Structures are given as structure tokens and as C-alpha cells.
């Protein structure tokens, strides 16, 4: 079952910069009792349902805001849906010169690529479109985002 309180806190902190309380995150391979306390606002998920047009209407302001925050770092999009085209990005008012579009061949590769992009810290936000993220993948995305002082946003389309 999804804990909406912690989920909302993570999403609000991504889009509004609100600070959240640290939450214990166990390191990979560590027993459940040993945990590292780090902020949770570096990973968020957004689930969108409905038509392509409705999803684009909802995504436009989010992506526009993130593209405006780029500074000298990228807004990286990994495996964005085919209907999220360069012309749509331009027409939606995004700063295209700070957007890096990357495509992969598999979901596992997409998680690895997102982790690498997050860890390097050259992107302020890495957005992935992965339908099924297991707990380990979420944990890795969170840890890599912390290392790179980046944010990870996964968008699930349904």
C-alpha cells in the first residue's frame, strides 16, 4: 500500500523546494536495521492516466518549471514517450537548450542510465518513464541523486 503522506512530501519538495524530514534509507546489501538517514526529497514519482493530450497538458507546466531551473545543469529525460517530441517541447515553452533527451533499449538499462546521470551531478533533475520500479531501483535512484545533488522524477503512464 502506498503511503500518501511521504509520497506527497517527496513530490512537493521536488516542485516547491519544501524541506522534508530525513528518513532512514538502508544501504544496498545492509540489514534492515542499519540505515543511513538522508533526505527523501531527491526522488519523486508522478502517475498520469488518460489520453496523450491530457498527459501533455499536465506535464507541460512541470517540465517548463524544471527547464527554467536548470542554470548550468541539464534537465535530463530518459526514455520519454515518443509523443513528447522536440516540437512539443518548443511549443510548450521549455528551454530546449538545457534539455538532454536519452533513449535506451530496456528498463534495466534505463535505471542504470538514470543512476549514472544522477550520480554525475551534471543534471539538476533526471526524469525517467519507468512503469514498474522495484524497491531496490527506487533506493538506487535515491542514493545516486543524493551523491550527485540531483533530483530524480519517475513518471508512470497508465
TrEMBL record:
It comes from the Bacteria. InterPro entries: Cell_div_suppressor_SulA, P-loop_NTPase. The keyword Coiled coil does not apply. The keyword Mitochondrion does not apply. GO terms for biological process: cell division; negative regulation of cell division; SOS response. It holds the Pfam family SulA. Keywords: Cell cycle, Cell division. This is Cell division inhibitor SulA. It comes from Pseudomonas pohangensis.
